[in-house]
């Protein structure tokens, strides 16, 4: 069984009829015959069952899910554009309840194409804070005087109505997980659902201060689509004579040597400076490859043999079949391979470890958190993860034959090393809320004096 779990940060949207007539996304505006779209639904369901090991693992009400699939299929009685079909089929994503299980997605290439044709977006980056949608910055990250204001209405629509339309159509393990995925593409999803707007009227609230502002749509690439530099993904800071923090926002990098060299230098510095307490921040880590945390972090802190999971269930696919396995069958088993601590290292870290987690911590980052907590390699601090502790993985990709909508599904799921509560989030040892607009403030509260 492969140890790597790939993360896909992919998001769905609902698309308005007016947008279908004016959309720069030509492929999404293509009209498809009713029988072809019904065939797309059948192809998706057949592929899903041929790929996924057990839909009932994440789908809370499997009977209702099948009823909804049939309702959507039977409701296709006339030709529809891909946008219109997407509007229907995307409503199933929240029922799938898995960030790795998706029907349809919007790629960065589509977004860039839209901007190249003069398109504009809602002008603010946003974050969810205690359930409210709060302005973080201008789109693409420039400062704004409205940072910290809660959005209450957009173009005269209550924000609750807007979120009720968008959030259920996002992939994600839970409502909390879908929120943190939605906030990263809010500007895009708002445009796709409600159409392009050159001018936005936005009602804001901050304490007792309520104001109405008008803001032009912005032709800028949202932060989520920017290509991050190494220093934006990985960073290290000595906080004081006893404490240091390393931030790892992804378990992966194009040149893996850069990452491993960086992590080795981190632990060398910790040893040379005689740091007592290392904080590892994975609050913004959506996953990647397990090898990165095994060989880049646990190599330096693990003091006993460990495994990255306990039991598993996997679907046997042709290209992953081992000798003796039958394609299409589902196998359940136990992971009996233990990873041994690295031989004596001059830069092995012997101090205390705190791992910061939050709602966006996902996929391979959840497996990392599970392992740290279950083996006592450190303590988890922060807020519960939006994702389940029992993660799916080995993601497969395909597309519907007529609409071309993407289909994504995992072929296995993995229970945490302790074997406990796979459908629950990972719960920190020390619960601590943090400021979504200034996440570094949390560090001050957990420093070891």
TrEMBL record:
InterPro entries: ClpP/crotonase-like_dom_sf (IPR029045), Tail-specific_protease (IPR005151). It holds the Pfam family Peptidase_S41. The keyword Zinc does not apply. GO terms for molecular function: serine-type peptidase activity. Keywords: Signal. Residues 1-20 form the signal peptide. GO terms for biological process: proteolysis. Coiled coil: none annotated. The keyword Signal applies. The lineage of its organism: Bacteria, Pseudomonadati, Bacteroidota, Cytophagia, Cytophagales. This is Tail specific protease domain-containing protein. It comes from Algoriphagus lacus. Residues 244-429 form the Tail specific protease domain.
């Amino acid at each position: 069984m492969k140890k790597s779990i790939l993360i896909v940060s992919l998001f769905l949207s609902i698309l308005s009829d007016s947008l279908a007539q004016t959309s720069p996304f030509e492929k999404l505006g293509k009209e498809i015959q009713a029988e072809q779209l019904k065939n797309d639904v059948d192809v998706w369901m057949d592929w899903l069952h041929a790929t996924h090991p057990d839909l009932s693992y994440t789908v809370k009400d499997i009977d209702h899910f099948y009823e909804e699939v049939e309702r959507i299929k039977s409701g296709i009685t006339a030709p529809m554009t891909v946008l219109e079909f997407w509007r229907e089929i995307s409503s199933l994503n929240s029922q799938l309840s898995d960030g790795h299980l998706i029907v349809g997605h919007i790629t960065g290439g589509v977004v860039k194409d839209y901007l190249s044709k003069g398109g504009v977006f809602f002008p603010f980056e946003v974050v969810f804070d205690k359930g409210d949608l709060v302005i973080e910055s201008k789109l693409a990250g420039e400062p704004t005087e409205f940072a910290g204001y809660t959005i209450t209405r957009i173009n005269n629509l209550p924000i609750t109505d807007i979120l009720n339309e968008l959030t259920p159509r996002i992939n994600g393990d839970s409502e909390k997980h879908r929120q943190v995925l939605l906030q990263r593409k809010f500007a895009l999803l708002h445009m796709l659902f409600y159409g392009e707007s050159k001018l936005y009227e936005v009602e804001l609230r901050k304490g007792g201060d309520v104001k109405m502002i008008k803001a032009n749509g912005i032709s800028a690439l949202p932060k989520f689509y920017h290509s991050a530099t190494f220093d934006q993904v990985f960073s290290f800071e000595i906080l004081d004579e006893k404490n240091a923090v390393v931030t790892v926002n992804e378990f992966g990098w194009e040149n893996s040597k850069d990452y491993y060299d960086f992590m080795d230098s981190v632990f060398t510095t910790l040893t040379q400076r005689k740091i007592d307490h290392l904080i590892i921040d994975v609050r913004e880590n959506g996953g990647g490859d397990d090898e990165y945390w095994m060989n880049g972090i646990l190599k330096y802190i693990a003091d006993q043999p460990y495994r990255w999971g306990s039991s598993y269930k996997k679907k046997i696919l042709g290209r992953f079949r081992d000798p003796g396995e039958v394609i299409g069958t589902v196998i359940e088993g136990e992971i009996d391979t233990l990873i041994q601590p690295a031989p004596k290292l001059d830069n092995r870290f012997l101090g205390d470890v705190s791992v910061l987690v939050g709602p966006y911590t996902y996929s391979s980052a959840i497996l990392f958190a599970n392992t740290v907590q279950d083996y006592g390699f450190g303590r988890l601090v922060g807020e519960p993860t939006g994702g389940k502790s029992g993660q799916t993985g080995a993601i497969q990709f395909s597309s519907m034959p007529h609409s071309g909508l993407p289909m994504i599904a995992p072929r296995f799921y993995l229970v945490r090393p302790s074997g406990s509560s796979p459908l629950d989030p990972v719960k920190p040892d020390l619960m601590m809320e943090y400021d979504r607009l200034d996440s570094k403030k949390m560090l001050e509260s957990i420093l070891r004096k």
